[in-house]
Inverse folding.
């Protein structure tokens, strides 16, 4: 189900970019990013809604553990630490061993491209996409849907590992893989321990927000 949705979503996203005239462009405007992201996310949300109606309770939030508590605010320092410390420490050995593949420029390229494409008021849209929408959608898909179902089949530990690898690999960026995999493990453990998405979503939001703040301060 995920594989079919992945193909359909990416085909739709690519068609949207092509129709808008940005096929092959290295950097696309923020509004184009927003439209293509919406085209990517809607198929996933549609499938999950169908899954909830056909195989679940019909309550979307309950079926995908979309629940928040005040203690989930612990995800703020956890996300900041993951961005500033964990990703750096995990990526460093790869930079030493394979400097041409895992140099800082390669690791930060996607984030820099996104930030460079946003100017003026478009930065607000970038924040909405990267800091709010992406974490919520990705946590529902990779933790609430994929990790949850893998956990039923294989148990908590294996599901955390598999879902984390899945999450990092689907970004299709070798330079980012070690850091994303390590961060995904953090998110997976958050979900496995709490049985809710609140903590992992807040952690993911803080992680992405920290990246944008660092870029804004260092440009």
């Amino acid at each position: 189900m995920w594989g079919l949705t992945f193909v359909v979503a990416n085909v739709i996203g690519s068609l949207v970019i092509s129709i808008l005239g940005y096929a092959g462009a290295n950097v696309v405007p923020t509004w184009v990013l927003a439209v293509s992201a919406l085209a990517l996310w809607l198929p996933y949300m549609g499938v999950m809604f169908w899954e909830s109606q056909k195989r679940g309770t019909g309550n979307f939030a309950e079926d995908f553990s979309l629940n928040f508590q005040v203690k989930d605010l612990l995800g703020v320092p956890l996300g900041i630490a993951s961005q500033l410390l964990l990703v750096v420490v995990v990526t460093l050995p790869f930079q030493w061993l394979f400097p041409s593949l895992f140099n800082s420029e390669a690791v930060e390229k996607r984030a820099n491209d996104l930030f460079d494409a946003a100017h003026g008021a478009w930065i607000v849209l970038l924040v909405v996409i990267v800091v709010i929408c992406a974490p919520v959608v990705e946590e529902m898909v990779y933790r609430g849907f994929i990790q949850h179902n893998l956990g039923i089949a294989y148990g908590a530990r294996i599901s955390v590992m598999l879902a984390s690898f899945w999450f990092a690999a689907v970004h299709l960026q070798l330079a980012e893989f070690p850091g994303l995999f390590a961060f995904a493990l953090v998110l997976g453990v958050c979900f496995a321990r709490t049985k809710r998405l609140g903590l992992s979503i807040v952690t993911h939001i803080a992680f992405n927000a920290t990246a944008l703040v660092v870029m804004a301060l260092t440009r």
Summary: The CA atoms of residues 56 and 63 lie 6 Å apart. DSSP finds nine helices and no strands in the chain. The mean pLDDT is 89.
